[in-house]
Amino acid sequence: MTNLNNNVAGVDTDFDVVVVGAGFAGMYMLYRLRQQGMRVRVLEAGGSVGGTWYWNRYPGARVDTETMFYSYQFSDELQQEWEWTQRYPSQQELHAYAKHVADRFDLWPDMQFDSPVEKTTWSEDRQSWTIETTDGALITSQYCVMATGCLSAVNTPKYKGLEDFSGSVYHTARWPEEGVDFSGLRVAVIGTGSSGVQSIPVIAEQAAQLTVFQRTGNYVIPAHNRALDPEEVAAIKADYPALRAKASASFSGNYFPVGGQSAMAVSEEERNREYESRWQEGGLAFMAAYADFMTSEEANETASEFIRDKIRGIVTDPATAERLAPKQLFMCKRLCVGTDYYETYNRDNVSLVDVSETVIDEILPEGVRVGETVYEVDAIVLATGFDAMTGALKRIDIRGVESVSLRDLWEDGPRAYLGLAISKFPNMFIITGPGSPSVLTNMIPSIEQHVDWISDCLTHMRINGVSRIEPELDAQEEWVAHVNEIADLSMRSTCSSWYLGSNVDGKPRIFMPYIGGFPAYVRKCNEVVEAGYAGFAFR
Ligand code: N01
């Protein structure tokens, strides 16, 4: 690589900072670092900006968080001028928003696409990172920021015979840009998490026959998506800072009413009225009806049973309804938000196969074999999710001090200080990494908080004339212990979910995100700064 300049610390590197990933995290990181006069290069595996909203192009893909609050707030001009059209915009609209942000802030020149990062290596002698892309290009930088996303490493089950299937196989998170026409085809969808729940009703409308393979029935709240009313938009925009602050003060960083009491503190009648009202309103707000869904089985069962009853009321075939009715705790897995999800099973061309006990044995050239039955299909859609939170980092060969491998260090589960940085990996930051609230919160505000923290930290380093930062092992271990301790207080840690890595064969079972809520986490990050970046060693 050419362009060797003396960077801020007087170290010869191509760039001050390399940011891996051009999703919402990587783009805002670039914006902030450029404001600080840093020389930045963003390396992105995909062909455009947007991250999640670039890759997840499956039919029906749309955000399930109210978009007036699932959007950047760092620029008031941006949030005032951008016009969202729907309560839950489609992937196309979110991708257009990402491209608009890149245009508006002139981010394109510093971003490089189709450049998956394969390896990053720290050199103690040079005090810099060398970043290697899959085409063999080497780039050096003083800092490396991993904006690789929590749900970006695709999980593809290792079915025997999958490669010999005679039709086409798609993964929801790697959907062809040109789209797929399922007209007249017999289609299998494997997986009933958020991606399956959103794609199944849309595929069912096109396919000749749709067979859904369900390992675990999920709780799906109706989205009641709709066009945004201009008056409602104007009212939010007029009061944006106060409303954003209110959202940030809530446990999940979302803007919806949070019930602070136990579900058992009210009568059954009152409880069901509350559930019905949240069901009619639609969306993730259902999970905030009461405070003790994750600490009281009794409270949890009231919400579970309410939703199961809804399923029984919607799905006309009682056996299908019972198969769809979730058996696990409510909110054990990420709550799903759908449009006509349960209604889809009333269609003549849709059938549901339970693979919870008799599993998918193999894929034959003509279809999917479950026990003695072969389901003949022309196309298979894998809606089988991600190797969440750690997958994207572990798929890169990250080497820290003395060539220590992140893969090896995280063999038994992730260890990071505040989910922001890792001991033995100096000058490397992670955005919304394991040990931060990330996936349990509204992602964009969480991303902005991390990016701001990292930018401020780099400014602090520059002002104080230091050029190397690394978490102290003790501080990291203390934080990891705290993250695990509070996770153990929640029933969420007793379930099977991607939060725990239980969807990926062989992955250690650790509850990865910080479960103590967004406000408590932000307080902790601020306290660390106020105490002179307590727990970090500078040089
Ligand atoms: O993935 P998932 P996803 N055989 O892991 C099943 C976000 N998101 O892509 O539950 C058979 O939730 C698996 O079964 P089980 C959101 O945070 C957001 O749907 O492990 N089945 C499950 O049913 C979400 O939570 C949005 O028993 C197999 C499904 O595949 C996260 O991304 C939209 C299997 C995977 O569900 C992930 O969602 C989409 C196997 N071998 C995603 N392996 C919105 O904003 C896995 N499964 C709307």
Task: Outline the structure in words.
The chain has 539 residues and is α/β, with parallel strands linked by helices. The protein folds into three domains: 301 residues, FAD/NAD(P)-binding domain (3-Layer(bba) Sandwich), CATH 3.50.50; 116 residues, FAD/NAD(P)-binding domain, CATH 3.50.50.60; 73 residues, no CATH class. Helices cover 31% and strands 17% of the residues. The strands form six sheets. Strands 3, 4, 5, 6, 7, 8, 19 and 20 form an eight-stranded mixed β-sheet that branches. Strands 9-18-10-11-14 form a five-stranded parallel β-sheet. Strand 10, helix 5 and strand 11 form a beta-alpha-beta unit. 3-acetylpyridine adenine dinucleotide binds next to helix 5.
Report a brief summary of the structure.
With 539 residues, this protein is of the alpha/beta class.
Looking at the structure, the CATH topology of the largest domain is FAD/NAD(P)-binding domain
Mean pLDDT: 96
DSSP strand tally:
22
Largest sheet: 8 strands, mixed
Strand content: 15-25%
What is the CATH superfamily classification of the largest domain?
Answer: FAD/NAD(P)-binding domain
Which small molecules are bound? 3-acetylpyridine adenine dinucleotide
Percent of residues in helices = 25-40%
Rounded to an integer in angstroms, the radius of gyration calculated over CA atoms is 23 Å
Keywords, separated by commas or semicolons:
single chain, about 550 residues, alpha/beta, FAD/NAD(P)-binding domain, 3 domains, 8-stranded mixed beta sheet, 5-stranded parallel beta sheet, 16 helices, 22 strands, about 15% strand, globular, disordered N terminus, binds 3-acetylpyridine adenine dinucleotide
